Amino acid sequence: MTKIAIIVLNWKQPKLTVDTIDSLLKINHPSFSYEIVLVDNGSSDNSLEIFNKKYNKNKLVKILNTKANLGYVGNNFGINYALDNNFDFIVLINNDVIVDPNFIEELLKESNNYDILGPKIYFAPGFEFHKDRYQKNDLGKVIWSMGGKMDWNNIYGSNISIDKVDHGQFEKINEDVDFISGCCLMASRGVFKTIGLLDKNYFMYLEDVDFCQRAKKSNLKLACIPKSIIWHINSASSKSGGDLHDYFITRNRIYFAYKYAGLRTKMAIFRESIKTFFSQSKWKKQAVIDLYLHKMNKGSWQ
Q1: What is the predicted pLDDT for the residue at 236?
Q2: What is the 3-state secondary structure (H, E, C) of 206-272?
Q3: CA distance 302 to 298
Q4: Residues of the chain with pLDDT > 70: what percent?
Q5: The pLDDT of residue 234
Q6: Residue 280: pLDDT over 90
Q7: How far apart, in whole angstroms, are the C-alpha atoms of residue 159 and residue 257?
Q8: Over the range 131-141, which residues count as b (16 or more CB within 10 Å of their CB) and which as e?
Q9: What is the pLDDT of residues 84-101, one digit of tens each?
Q10: Which of 45-78 are b and which e, b meaning 16 or more Cβ less than 10 Å from the residue's Cβ?
Q11: 227 — phi, psi (to 5°)?
Q12: N or C: which terminal CB in the chain sees fewer CB atoms within 10 Å?
């Protein structure tokens, strides 16, 4: 039977993570076996205590401890465990989601056709960006992502069909994607053996886009599978905006551009980075400094 490792990364969000794990424990798995690899990212709170008390007798949950905050690339800790233990597929999934019981089964049905697969992702009810825009009956059907596209001129990624209400028009598999969000993606062990793990230079933000870009350069196929469904409690585990966002997005965006963009865009990003260096934002300026000093991963962030 196909073996699937579902990797969930926690950092000081035990209640949120437990809700996600409990949702995953209810999935239907007629054609596969699975293990939830709960990776604690060196939390300094009581996360591990809560997890060990709740799951230490549950054979479906394996608890790992990185002993340090490795950022989103702490997922590599779980990926290595899955590869070492001969799992056939690896699912990376945020710790702030609720899943449809058939979401993996639906991804697995298309795994012979695509190499990296993602589900249709809705906003969890009440977590939409524009809460006043929707009718009560729309809640739970507002799209968060149907895959991702890159604006290669400006190096910005965006979620396809975000904020649109699903009235049944999103039932076709979407192959026209540049990336599958790290909120939830599935890939075979062969994909990781071919293109490697998440690039630890990023620490957080854009590592999923980088992973998918490496896949595309290796002629691997990506797709969003709409019969597979999850709900995202948007920005629950990492609040958007602020100094942290400014630092990592600024630095990682330039790094990504220098790896993958065309020459004209690289030159534009270089000019933009010089302007950013003279900006009034402390952390954006530090991001540029660290990028050119190749001070990556956690960099100067404290």
Answers
A1: 52
A2: CHHHHHHHHHHHCCCCEEEEEEEEEEECCCCCCCCCHHHHHHHHHHHHHHHHHHHCCHHHHHHHHHH
A3: 8
A4: 98
A5: 79
A6: no
A7: 19
A8: eeebeeeebbb
A9: 999 999 999 999 999 999
A10: eebbebbeeebeeeeebbbbbbeebbbbbbbbbb
A11: -75, -15
A12: C
CA pair distance 32, 258, nearest whole angstrom: 40
Whether pLDDT at 262 is above 60:
yes
pLDDT at 237: 47
The vertex-115 CA angle with 221 and 175, nearest 5°, equals 40
What pLDDT is attached to residue 235? 66
pTM attached to this predicted model: 0.95
**How many CA atoms lie within 13 Å of 100's alpha carbon, on the beta-carbon side?**
18
CB atoms within 10 A of CB 210: 20
Are 123 and 142 in contact by the 8 Å Cβ rule? The answer is: yes
116 three-class SS? strand
Q: Enumerate residues 6+ apart whose C-beta is below 8 A from 270.
A: none
- Catalogue all structural domains in the chain, each as residue range(s) with its CATH number: 2-232 (3.90.550.60), 242-292 (no CATH)
CA nearest neighbour of 205 among 232, 178, 240, 177: 240
Per residue in 222-247, pLDDT tens? 999 999 999 999 765 444 568 999 99
